[in-house]
Specification:
Blueprint: H1 6-37, H2 41-46, H3 60-67, H4 70-101, H5 108-120, H6 125-134, H7 152-163, H8 167-175, H9 180-191, H10 193-209, H11 212-217, H12 226-236, H13 239-242, H14 246-287
Helix pairs in contact: 1-14, 3-14, 4-7, 4-10, 4-12, 7-10, 7-14, 10-14, 12-14
Length: 290
């Protein structure tokens, strides 16, 4: 093996330093938010500059966030939307992707053209609202699930992944008497677990972070998802709902916004490590036709 040249060693050193700097730039905002959320509010307001450790220690921001009785209700609503939504998303997206990946499907190119068309053009917000209201989904958690049942980009990603599966597997299964549903659920999906993991992450994060559709379609506060509750806490300053007095509100706001970010982000951060090993492989399988 040839020894690396001076220029190659210089490149490796520069590349390593650049990646370390990039890692710090990526992680530091999370570190800042975590430390700020448990810092003493008065000291945080007076502090300027980078934050590398908590300024004192106080859980007042978290206690005030969870003092809001709607927080746990929001968590429950969000978990319902995420879990039920994921089941519907994966089921319908896999059915659509499998159908479109079959070379025997008539007018496949024309159908794909109409599907891709929806990525660039839509009817607009008002027709969307009137449609959801017209079918009776307004002021229901189903308004956050059914209209988002299939994402066009995810459908194309899964379709491309299904097309990479050798045709011989399907042909041998048909010889043994398997129909399309058996082929999909017993052969195609088990062989596509990396792309399924990507779908779970994409759809799950989308459902978890969604607040705009909830703000449009929901009038009953008991149906609000977590993100909409946190939005109220941050933007409307529900001091009475959080048990904070008017004098304390300005001080509390210094740490409150960071606590709400942690409350909204931690569940997703805990799930990602279990999907990370499939993520890159699944994204590449779905992005490049084999």
């Amino acid at each position: 093996m040839n020894k690396p040249t001076f220029s190659e060693r210089c490149f490796d050193v520069f590349n390593g330093l650049f990646l370390i700097a990039l890692m710090i730039a990526t992680i530091y905002p999370l570190i800042y938010i975590a430390f700020a959320s448990v810092s003493d509010a008065s000291r945080l307001m007076a502090y300027k500059g980078a934050l590398w450790k908590p300024l004192g220690f106080s859980l007042d921001a978290y206690s005030n966030v969870f003092a809001n009785p709607m927080i746990l209700k929001g968590y429950g609503n969000t978990f319902f939307v995420v879990l039920v939504g994921l089941v519907l998303n994966i089921l319908l997206t896999s059915l659509g992707a499998y159908s479109l990946s079959r070379k025997s499907l008539k007018y496949r190119k024309q159908i794909m053209l109409f599907i891709v068309f929806t990525m660039f053009f839509s009817g607009g917000l008002i027709p969307f609202y009137l449609t959801v209201k017209g079918v009776g989904l307004a002021n229901s958690l189903w308004a956050l699930i059914i209209p988002q049942a299939i994402n066009t980009f995810n459908l194309i990603l899964m379709k491309t992944a299904f097309e990479a599966i050798p045709d011989a597997l399907e042909e041998s299964a048909k010889i043994d008497g398997a129909n399309d549903l058996v082929i999909l659920f017993r052969i195609v999906l088990p062989l596509s677990m990396p792309v399924i993991a990507v779908m779970l992450l994409y759809y799950g994060v989308s459902h978890w972070n969604s607040w705009f559709h909830a703000m449009i379609f929901l009038q009953d506060r008991s149906l609000y998802p977590l993100q909409l509750i946190l939005r109220e806490i941050l933007l409307q300053g529900e001091a009475s709902g959080m048990g904070a007095s008017a004098d304390d509100m300005a001080m509390l706001a210094a740490t409150l916004k960071y606590a709400t970010i942690i409350v909204a982000t931690v569940p997703i951060l805990l799930v990602y490590p279990f999907l990370q090993k499939y993520f890159v492989k699944g994204a590449l399988i779905g992005a490049i036709k084999g």
